[in-house]
């Protein structure tokens, strides 16, 4: 019996297709178009091939920005994931303090990114900021506006303060989803606190931790507003991450071709590393 196809259903998804095309495909194709063209002004363009891609990939400036970006991402992941899990383990599972803890954890996530940058910019000022003045009073020679190490310290501290809560909330959601039967069995077997964490809680949190790591990885590569407000990429170029360097090329220098090529390379790096992260963390999932 021949199956009758009703093509009217395509009209139902047409608005979604148009919305996706407007939001994603059209901007992406515009960037691709600029990445293979050159212009000398007067809105006249000519084909440049993959020249801009070769220039960006061989650029020391791009390599330096990518190195700073990878270092920033590695540092915040190493700090935020264990710290978030540790805080989630100490949070209560029942009672009125559950709501209090959850609200307190969610507060940093509700603050707009530019406000976070402004808060830490003022807080870390060496002359009048609570953090900057306090560190100098303790004998540290702290000045994040002049010293690259201090700028990195402040940038990392700000990101940890802002985003560790996300890891806490995800890890906590994974913890409270573990049935009590697992804990009762561990108690009967006389398992230690570390054994419970190692063989029950950590495996059960694997999926949410995978999501947390992927989200923080992608967010760290897309971070712009907070470091731009806090340090502006300085002192010098010491905190110029990929996003800040891209904006400088695109809007500061108005080099549309190199900026478009860098945008595509930037996107492919994030896509590739996210795939590597996900594959490595879920490679044993199908067997378990």
Automatic annotation (TrEMBL):
Family: Belongs to the binding-protein-dependent transport system permease family.
Principal location listed in the UniProt entry: membrane
CDD domains hit by this protein: TM_PBP2
Residue ranges of every copy of the ABC transmembrane type-1 domain listed in the record: 66-277
GO biological process, one term: transmembrane transport
Membrane topology: Multi-pass membrane protein
PROSITE patterns (UniProt xref): ABC_TM1
GO cellular component: plasma membrane
Organism: Hypericibacter adhaerens
Location in or out of the cell: Cell membrane
Organism superkingdom: Bacteria
InterPro entries linked to this entry: MetI-like, MetI-like_sf, Sugar_ABC_transporter
Record flagged with keyword Lipid metabolism: no
TM regions (residue ranges): 12-36, 70-89, 96-123, 160-183, 208-225, 259-280
Key word Transport present: yes
This protein's name: ABC transporter permease
Swiss-Prot/TrEMBL keywords: Membrane, Transmembrane, Transmembrane helix, Transport
